[in-house]
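Appendix B, record 7
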Amino acid sequence: MNKKTTWLIVALVILALAAFLDFGIFSKNKLPAELIVSGHPEWPPIMYQQNDQIVGAGPEIVAKIFQELGIKVVPKFEGSWETVQSKAKDGSVDVLAAAYKTAERETYMDYSIPYTVDPVVLVTKKGKAFPYDKWDDLVGKNGVVTTGDSYGQDFDNFLKEKLTAQKVGAPAEAFALLDQGKADYFVYALYSAENYFFQQKAADRFEIIPKYVSSENFYLTVSKKSPFASLLPQVNALLEKYKADGTIDRIIESKKQSLWSENK
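Structure tokens (predicted):
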């Protein structure tokens, strides 16, 4: 190969690389300037409402990831969890800060790798706890769940097929039913239940059955209609990095401590 041919090949490679970089910049510039993240308004410390925002460990992790990708994140309170999911479905919300994986949700959202685990438990009125070892032990009892929530696909299916549980709009309503003796158990996230006990000074009125109902992965989700869905590979790479270096665990623990200190 002579020098002229070599330089021609080098020039073509440089031109191709320049074209690729220009395309990448052009593609990035096509993305909106802001990303809307929302989530469950009552699932602390991972996500919860604070005025007109959704805050917590999940939104903080989302902000850290996308800011590293050069995108401004706007955390918005968009209503009930059911409403938030419908907005992810139509694309008016780009990212959910945390969600369990279900077949129905996968039809309209793309999932990241899991970034933490969320234990799900049974809450009862104080002194009304019952022997519980397996889901079948709930058959014949009156449960309460919150509208739009999942407790893992397998338990969701069991709940629908085998259990009697009324749906309410908010955890406060569920706790009221327990208090009034109108429900035997409330299915809720462990950390959120503990926070409720502390915040409301309710540990003398309610208790948690030690055996978990399930222990579910939490994922970031991106609406299939969001232009940011194309960034999911980069999101996953950063999640892997933050899991490995302990950043995610530190953020979650910090939010737990912050909530407890705020409610002292």
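Remarks on this record: Residues 13-28 have pLDDT under 50 and may be disordered. Residues 83 and 256 are 26 Å apart (CA to CA).
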